[in-house]
Amino acid sequence: MNLSESCFVKLEALCQEVRESHEKLNKAQSAVDRHISDIYHSVERAEDFTVEEGDAIARKLKEALHKRRLVKDELARLYPVYDIFRNGIGEVDANYRRSVRKSFNRELAMKANVNLGDIFEEYGIEY
Fold this sequence. Notes:
Layout: H1 3-45, H2 51-110, H3 116-122
């Protein structure tokens, strides 16, 4: 695998990881939202509750809201990277494949007997 192909493969893997992370965070937010909704519904359905029961409900709600905030904050931090891949990976893929085709055509035209690894080695650059 050449250097550019290695970079592109890593980029595709990162894109997949970002998409999967975004999906997991969305699922976590939905689960926490359902839990919060359940707490609200239990308050709505309750006829009366004691101060202790009210305190317990408030603590559960606070804990759930804290979890939701953590998930939303992580989503907000991930979003700039997610947005790059959501909007641009198709274009990057097309441009990369076009470059590979052109490069292969140049390679055929030049019929080079040297490869990039040889050049790096000759000039003392780690490959």
